[in-house]
């Protein structure tokens, strides 16, 4: 069906129920999978290929569905700002941090601290009220996430440069969520994704030539690239923006506390980074924090 007004179709509430769980799984897997891809590619070469493939897929869907594009300079600006913050700042700095030698689990922890920052700035930027229970849940989730990382031992490496890059990525995703909630309009996800991936590819291209431009086509790299295109670029980002528009920012952001524990589990499977008993305890604590922070009032 073709959308003519550019708005995201209203989904039945029951269809949105599995969205947080699917998002957490897809987003969490992106860290260890990106680490695999970065064994054979430099960060901006990987991002350029990822965005070109994602933009191509979106172009096909756009030709079939023919959804409306943003109207007016302001709507184009809003879509572009969020696109730069997510596709270039967040993903670019995250990949640079991983490429510098930081472990996938530690990077996942740092960028997933964004619920704390979102909760701090949301009242001033978005006008939302953050309840005491949400603050307690956020703190509990942070404690659980840190337990997972600290229990990792020598596998959880992080240099000063890697930490700074991950902190920059954190700032990018926080700004994107707050901006999307404050200024975002319910555009069709195909239109938004197409614009943002084309923009991401255009901005990453000069960075490819400024860097080393390393690339080795291997089976693991091709598989990782395929996942990053479909799982992260096409599905996870769309779910994130849809949930941000549909619910309170602090509540949606608290889902990120599931990311470090889940990333640790997937890194164990994909990269051989074992989760200790203390790490499993941290997963339980983080899950309890998310439950508390996202609990709706009776």
UniProtKB/TrEMBL annotation:
Cell location = Membrane
Q: Where are the transmembrane segments?
A: 21-38, 44-65, 77-98, 104-125, 132-152, 158-178, 190-209, 221-242, 249-271, 277-294
Q: Which GO terms describe its cellular component?
A: membrane
Spell out the InterPro entries in the cross-references: AA-Vitamin_Transporters, EamA_dom, EmrE-like
Using the record's annotation, list all stretches that form the EamA domain.
22-149, 171-293
Family annotation (Pfam families): EamA (PF00892)
Check the record and name the SUPFAM superfamilies matching this protein: Multidrug resistance efflux transporter EmrE
Membrane protein topology class = Multi-pass membrane protein
* Keyword annotations: Membrane, Transmembrane, Transmembrane helix
Q: Sorted alphabetically, which PANTHER family does this protein's record hold?
A: EAMA DOMAIN-CONTAINING PROTEIN, INNER MEMBRANE TRANSPORTER
**Protein name stated in the entry:** EamA domain-containing protein
Q: Which organism is it from?
A: wastewater metagenome
């Amino acid at each position: 069906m073709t959308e003519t007004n550019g708005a995201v179709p209203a989904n039945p509430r029951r269809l949105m129920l599995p969205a947080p769980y699917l998002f957490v799984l897809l987003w969490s897997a992106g860290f260890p999978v990106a680490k695999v891809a970065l064994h054979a590619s430099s960060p901006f070469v990987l991002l350029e290929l990822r965005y070109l493939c994602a933009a191509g897929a979106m172009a096909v869907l756009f030709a079939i569905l023919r959804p409306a594009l943003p109207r007016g300079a302001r709507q184009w600006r809003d879509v572009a700002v969020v696109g730069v913050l997510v596709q270039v700042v967040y993903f670019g700095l995250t990949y640079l941090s991983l490429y510098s030698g930081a472990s996938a689990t530690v990077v996942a922890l740092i960028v997933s601290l964004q619920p704390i920052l979102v909760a701090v700035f949301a009242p001033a930027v978005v006008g939302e009220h953050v309840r005491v229970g949400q603050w307690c849940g956020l703190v509990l989730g942070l404690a659980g996430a840190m337990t997972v990382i600290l229990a990792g031992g020598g596998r959880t490496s992080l240099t000063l440069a890697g930490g700074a890059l991950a902190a920059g990525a954190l700032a990018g995703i926080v700004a994107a969520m707050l901006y999307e909630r404050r200024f975002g309009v319910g555009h069709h996800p195909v239109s938004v994704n197409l614009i943002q991936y084309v923009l991401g590819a255009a901005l990453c291209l000069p960075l490819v030539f400024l860097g080393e431009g390393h690339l080795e086509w291997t089976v693991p790299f091709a598989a990782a690239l395929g996942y990053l295109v479909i799982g992260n670029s096409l599905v996870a980002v769309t779910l994130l923006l849809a949930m941000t528009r549909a619910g309170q920012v602090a509540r949606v952001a608290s889902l990120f506390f599931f990311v470090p524990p889940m990333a640790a589990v997937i890194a164990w499977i994909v990269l051989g980074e074992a989760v200790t008993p203390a790490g499993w305890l941290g997963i339980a604590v983080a899950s309890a924090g998310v439950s508390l922070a996202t609990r709706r009032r009776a």
